[in-house]
Amino acid sequence: MAKPIMARATAVWLVDNTTLSFKQIADFVGMHELEVQGIADGDVASGVKGFDPIANNQLEQSEIDKAEKDPLYQLRLKFNPAAAGEEKRRGPRYTPLSKRQDRPASILWLVKFHPELTDGQIGKLVGTTKPTIQSIRERTHWNISNIQPIDPVALGLCKQTELDAAVQKAAKRREAEGAVMTDDERRKLVSTEQSLGMSTEPRIPTAIEGLETFSLSDDNSDEDDDINSGPVPDAATFFNLPESSDDDDEQP
Predict the structure, then answer these.
(1) CA distance linking residue 140 with residue 172, whole number of Å
(2) pTM value?
(3) What is the DSSP letter of 46?
(4) Is the dihedral of CA 25, 31, 37, 39 positive or negative?
(5) What angle do CA 181, 186, 187 make, to 5 degrees?
(6) Which tens digit of pLDDT belongs to each residue from 178-215?
(7) Rounded CA gap, 22 and 37, in Å?
(8) Which of 6, 145, 188, 194 has its CA 20 to 30 A from that of 72?
(9) DSSP code per residue over 29-41
(10) How many other C-beta atoms can be found within 10 angstroms of the C-beta atom of residue 148?
(11) Cβ of 172: how many Cβ atoms within 10 Å?
(12) Of all helices (H) and strands (E), which one includes residue 115?
C-alpha cells in the first residue's frame, strides 16, 4: 500500500484536525500506533509542523468522514495519475560532493583487498560507474599514482553491513563456481564478525600434525644434566697461566 509523503507531518495534522483513531492514522502513514499516540501526547514530533494531506492532494475529505464514522475503516491514499508507472530509479547511489573525491581511493581498496567483487557490486557500494572501476583495475586512471587505498566504510561511502553482504554474495558465487581458494582468500570472503572470531594461530598441516613437540635433544638430556651438575671450571684453567710466587713479586 502506498504511503503519503511527509508521513510524520501528515500524522501530526490528522491528530490535530480529525477524530480518527490512532490505529487508523498509523495504518495510513505507515507508523506504529504507539508512535501516533506519542504525537498526541506531545512526546513525539513536538517540533514538526502539520502537513495537510487534503490541501496537498493526497487525501479526500470524504475519506476522513467515512473513517471518523467507522473506526474499522482504513483511509485510502488519493490516486495520482502523474505517479502511475513511477518506479525507483536504478543505478549508482548518490554520493555527496564532499566525498566524491574519496571514491577512487575506496575503489582501489576494494579492487586490492576484495578482487572477487564484480564491477556492479563495487558500483553499488561506493556509487561509481564501471568505466571508473575498470580504469583503476587496469591502472589507467589519470591520478592512479597518487591514489592510496582506503576502506570505503572508514570514508563513510557505505556501511559495514553492506560490504559484508556483498562479500558473502561473492563467496557463494565462488563456491558455486567450484574455485579453489587459499586460507587468505577464504578469510577475505567472510564477514567482519566471522573474521574477528577466527583463531589467529596458524594451522599445522595434517601431514606433520603431532610432530610439533618432537626434539632431537631429548636423548642427550641426561648427559647434559651430568655436565651441568659438575664444578664450574676456573678461568685460569682455560689459559694455562703459570702460578705466581711471593719471591717473584719481591724482586725489583
Answers:
(1) 30
(2) 0.41
(3) T
(4) negative
(5) 150
(6) 665 555 555 555 555 555 555 555 555 555 555 555 55
(7) 6
(8) 6
(9) HT--HHHHHHHHH
(10) 8
(11) 10
(12) none
